[in-house]
Specification:
Elements (H helix, E strand, L loop, with lengths): L4 E3 L12 E4 L10 H7 L5 E4 L15 H14 L5 E6 L1 H12 L4 E7 L11 H13 L4 H8 L6 H8 L2 E3 L5 E3 L3 H6 L1 H4 L13 E6 L10 H7 L3 E6 L6 H4 L1 H13 L2
Parallel strand pairs: 2-3, 2-4, 4-5, 5-8, 8-9
Antiparallel strand pairs: 1-3, 6-7
Helix pairs in contact: 2-3
Amino acid sequence: MRLHCIDTGRVEGGGAIRPLVVLHGLFGSADNWRSHLKQWQAARRVIAVDLRNHGRSPHAEGMAYATMADDVIALMDALEIEAFDLLGHSMGGKVAMTLARQFPDRVARLVVADIAPVAYRHGHDEIFAAMRRVEAERPESRREADALMAETIDSTATRQFLATNLLRDDAGVMRWRVGLDEIAAGYDDIIAPPDGDRPYDGPALLVRGGNSHYVPDRYRGAIEEVMPKVRIETLEGAGHWLHAEQPAAFRDAVDRFLAES
């Protein structure tokens, strides 16, 4: 599978700086990272990836982390990128951990944003219900789609995030660009731990939101089993979407880590 990506291209005079590969979370896309790409691209090449069934990438069965990691490696091979720094948020963080464990020679430094290498409970029932409601009612505007989602999702921010996945088809109907059927069928794999049977022994940074429940202190043991050299930093006042809520602080944490020798 050839994944879609946003590739900022090589930086003149920046040949010694490794590319940074960015992986989004569930129902996200490379587009969510455009503001960060504008900042990072001045110093290095950045490749923000649409994972399978997301963004502009193809839809296909299978959401296992090993499968998604293989997709990313295939893209890197096609781009002729051998070694790179890797950043993943939420579901993308589990893809990143899997890739780093299975292809450690390709990942120079690993950044994981607000996710731990553990199994989580089912927690997206309302989102799936809202998206299915939109799918069934075939709204002709974003306002109509938002009203349908509001029947089950109270959070305006969550509805606005999901709406980034809406496209108008030739008949004027708003449709989801994500592979909703494939994601739903693979949801048990999404909430499972990342794949891989050995630790990633390279430098690793886990950035968590101080107001997020995804990476509590009790998960430290599990985190260190997967990333023995991990450093954990907390962005106080930020939630799960820490890169959107505190973009400057998030970039600063990432930049400091990637600049280390």
